[in-house]
Amino acid sequence: MEPKIKPKVLFFDVNETLLDLTQMKKQVAEALGGNDHLLPLWFTTMLQYSLVMSASGRYEPFGHIGAAALQMVAANHDIKMTEEDARNLVINGLRNLPPHPEVKEALSKLKEAGYTLVSLTNSSDEGVQHQFENAGLNSYFDRRLSIEPVKKFKPFTDTYDWAANQLNIQPEDCMLIAAHGWDVAGALWTGWRAAFVSRPGQQLFPLAPQTEINAPDLLKVADLLVAYH
Fold this sequence. Notes:
Elements: E1 9-12, H1 22-31, H2 39-55, H3 62-76, H4 83-95, H5 103-112, E2 116-121, H6 125-135, E3 143-146, H7 157-166, E4 174-178, H8 181-189, E5 193-197, E6 213-215, H9 218-226
Parallel strand pairs: 1-2, 1-4, 2-3, 4-5, 5-6
């Protein structure tokens, strides 16, 4: 089997792919009366309404949508939560996430192998700036991209096209590395390559094309990519 050709740029999703949401999930669960089972509903509601806004030609920062989704889930379970409390919880939680244990070693390996590393996130530019400073990730990345300028959330095709244009490269020269089936699906349908990080609870979308890499953590993804020529 021939070794695979290196993509020109590796684009990384941030939340869950690089950063560990465990502590934030605990805080949100507490705010929802200790109902851990409501967390997946909150995440899917947040994603649903980010797509609703993009499909409707509207934009609000991802943290604001996450807070609104949290208010909706809380209200359905008779838990009172103000907009201010929800935003403080979601925005502060997102900005103070630690990296997964293997992330820095994996990013170091990829940089040493000569890859260009770029983050691509649905979070606001200010939000991801805080995230990377607090997690100590700035030094690993060549560029940091937020969808804020294009005002369409991943997985809209326009957003991946915009990101490729920012690096002045073709879609086939891009690889997205993400822990979300919907994100890698969107990238693949745009003509990008993709690697899936199968974090606990995450699955590929069966109706999407297959990713060329599927590994349980970022270090295993990095080891495979270092072997590309």
